[in-house]
Write a structure and sequence with these properties.
By secondary structure, the protein is an alpha/beta fold. 43% of the residues lie in helices and 14% in strands. The structure holds ligand F0G.
C-alpha cells in the first residue's frame, strides 16, 4: 500500500483534535535494522535491532511529533511556531512550518548546536536565535513567550508531539509482531521515552502486544535523572542531550519504573565507542543516538542483564550527518596524491588489500533482512 505519512496511518490511535491539518513529509515508517555483529560482540544469543530514526525526512525522530504538533497549530489558525532546541527539534520544526506555510522561530544555546542541525534550520527558513545560555534556559524563555503571545510552542511539552512520537512504538510492534523485551534509548528532555511508553501501553491494551523494559540512557555530564537533581551546566559530546532540567523527567522515571527498566548514565567515551561500533555495521548515527545502545553495552559488561533469547531494540534517534564535525575532527587527514594511476597503485599495495580477511558478516547479510514495510 502507498505510504502517505503518520497521520494517515495512525490517526485512529491518536488523541488529537479533528481540525489537525495534514502536514506531512512522509515521516515515520523507518526501518528496524538487524545488528548481528554488535549482538555477537555483546555476548550473542539474542536478537538486536536498530530502529533507525535518522532516516526520517529531516534526519531525526522529531519529525514524528512535528507532523502532528505543526498540523494542530496550522489547523487552529496559528501563524508562527516557536521552540527551544539542541538542534534536531529546530530543524524539524523549521521543515514542517515551511511545509505548512507558518513562520518558525528557534532558540538555541550559543555554539552548542551541531552544524548539520543549524544548517537545516536555516535551509528550511527558520528565524534562528542563539542565547548565551543553555537549552534549559531557552526552553524556559519560549514557554513564557508562548504563554503571553499567540505563538504555538512545539517542544515536547506540547502533548501533540507525544501523540506523533508514540507511533514509533506501534511500528516496532508491527514489524516484530509484538513488543521487544528491551528498548534502549537516549534521554534528554525526556519526551521520547515518555512517548514510547505511551505507545507500547496503548498497543498492548489494544492488541496484547506486550511491554518492553525501557532502558533510558543519559550522558554522565548531563544526567539529572540519574543524579536526582537538576544539572546547572550540563556537558557532553552528545550535544543533542546536553540537558540539565528535563521537562518530562518525572514521566521518564515513571516509564522506566513501570516497565521494570531504569534510567542510567554512560560516559562520552562509551557513547563514541558505540557510535563507531554502529558505523562499523553500516549505521552512522549522531553521538546522542548511540547512547541507548552504549547503555546496553555497559549493562552487559557489568553482568546486570541476561539477554539470552531476548529481542532488543536500540532507538537510534538521529543521523550521523547531523554532526559530521565530530568524525571529521577525529579522522586522520586523507592522503593527497597526484592524479596519476601509478601513484595510486603504489600507495594502495593492491595485492595486500585483496588478501585482507573479509569479515563474514560483512558479506552475508542480504538487504531483505532489513525490515521495512
Ligand atoms: N536523540 C537526539 C538525536 C535528540 O535530538 C534528542 C533530543 C534526544 C535523543 C532526546 O530526546 O529530549 O525526547 O529525551 N533533542 C531535543 C532537540 C532536545 O532540541 O532537538 P528527548
Amino acid at each position: 500500500m502507498h505510504y502517505t505519512g503518520l497521520l494517515d496511518r495512525y490517526h485512529m490511535l491518536m488523541d488529537i483534535p479533528a481540525y489537525t491539518a495534514r502536514i506531512t513529509l512522509l515521516e515515520g515508517n523507518t526501518p528496524l535494522i538487524p545488528l548481528p555483529r554488535l549482538a555477537e560482540q555483546l555476548g550473542g544469543g539474542f536478537e538486536l535491532y536498530a530502529k533507525f530514526e535518522g532516516l526520517n525526512p529531516t534526519g531525526s525522530f522529531k519529525d514524528r511529533g512535528m507532523t502532528i504538533a505543526i498540523g494542530e497549530a496550522a489547523g487552529r489558525g496559528a501563524h508562527t511556531v516557536i521552540c527551544a532546541s539542541t538542534g534536531n527539534t529546530a530543524a524539524s520544526a523549521a521543515a514542517y512550518a515551511a511545509r505548512a506555510g507558518l513562520g518558525c522561530i528557534v532558540i538555541i544555546p550559543e555554539g552548542k548546536v551541531a552544524s548539520g542541525k543549524l544548517a537545516g534550520a536555516a535551509a528550511y527558513g527558520a528565524r534562528v536565535i542563539q542565547i548565551t545560555g543553555s537549552f534549559d534556559d531557552a526552553l524556559a524563555l519560549v514557554v513564557e513567550l508562548s504563554q503571553k503571545h499567540p505563538i504555538a510552542l512545539v517542544n515536547s511539552l506540547n502533548p501533540f508531539r507525544l501523540e506523533g512520537q508514540k507511533t514509533a512504538a506501534f511500528e516496532i510492534c508491527d514489524n516484530l509482531g509484538c513488543a521487544p523485551d528491551l528498548l534502549c534509548l537516549p534521554v534528554g528532555n525526556a519526551g521520547n521515552i515518555t512517548a514510547y511508553w505511551m505507545g507500547f501501553q496503548q498497543y498492548n491494551d489494544l492488541k496484547g502486544s506486550g511491554l518492553p523494559r525501557c532502558l533510558g540512557v543519559q550522558a554522565e555530564g548531563a544526567a539529572p535523572l540519574v543524579l536526582g537533581h537538576p544539572v546547572e551546566k550540563p556537558e557532553t559530546v552528545a550535544s543533542a542531550i546536553r540537558i540539565g532540567r528535563p521537562a518530562r523527567g518525572e514521566q521518564a522515571l515513571q516509564a522506566a519504573e513501570e516497565s521494570g527498566g531504569k534510567i542510567m548514565a554512560v560516559s562520552d567515551e562509551e557513547i563514541l565507542v558505540m557510535q563507531r561500533s554502529l558505523a562499523a555495521e553500516g549505521v552512522w548515527v549522531e553521538p546522542a543516538s548511540a547512547a541507548g545502545l552504549a547503555g546496553l553495552a555497559a549493562e552487559v559488561r557489568a553482568g546486570r542483564v541476561n539477554l539470552r533469547g531476548q529481542r532488543v531494540v536500540g532507538v537510534c534517534t538521529g543521523h550521523g550527518l547531523k554532526d559530521p564535525d565530530i568524525v571529521v575532527r577525529a579522522m586522520t587527514h586523507p592522503t593527497i596524491l597526484p592524479a596519476k594511476y601509478e601513484a595510486l597503485e603504489a600507495l594502495i599495495d593492491c595485492r595486500n588489500e585483496t588478501s585482507l580477511p573479509i569479515l563474514p558478516n560483512a558479506l552475508y547479510q542480504p538487504n531483505d533482512e532489513i525490515i521495512k514495510r
